[in-house]
Amino acid sequence: MSDTLLLVKNLSKTKNNIEILKDINFSIDKGQVVGLLGANGSGKTSLLKLIALLNRPSEGSIEFDSKPLSIESKNEMVFLPDLDVLDAKSKISSIISFYEGVFYNFKKDIALEILDSLKIKSNAYINRCSKGTREKIALALTMARQVKLYMFDEPIVGIDPVARDLVLGIILKYKKQDSSLIISTHLLNEVEAILDTALFMYEGRLIANKKLNDIKESGLSLEASFKELILTQG
Fold first, then answer.
1. What confidence tier does 170 reach under pLDDT thresholds 50, 70, 90?
2. 39-57, pLDDT tens digit by residue?
3. Tag placement on the chain: N or C end, fewer CB within 10 Å?
4. What is the pTM of this model?
5. Into how many domains does the chain fold?
């Protein structure tokens, strides 16, 4: 049995004659926590949408758990976008019930446990919650699904700095041991401690794929390593 969960080969995406992603190649092993890092507009979200089957590539292929990516793959992955995806007029408890009915791998007890650790009441209405609280609710709903791959697009950008470590800790605590994480962010310092691997994006290209241990041994921080890479792009 292969240790590789996700294999991306020669992936490109063109929209309106503009090349958004250019010949992307990488793999992710089961259990890995991977940072998809780069400035806004570097192609991070576009890449996640291809993996999540929300868009189709112009060229290349994606394999998930040793099989071509397919609609069936979606049952074993979850994508949390950088958008407010919750129904503003609903109670949190109603959304939990909806998820429980729609997703066979959704665990209500885990969702409630995460909300409790974040001090969020399940009888609250979404439209009475702050943006940061809504992001935490979406996180709880996401982590309550027992899947093989979790994908997060800027999961901590709307959360106050004090709570960011707590949120990242919850992500690590509630993922299954053999599940993998892709965290897309431009907040490099905040995620450095939890990553196994960093994928550095720049202008639609994957410019580096580095193990965090190798970065640490170089004596550079994650952010310093990224800045050094950008300087070489000209």
1. very high
2. 888 999 999 999 999 999 9
3. C
4. 0.93
5. 1
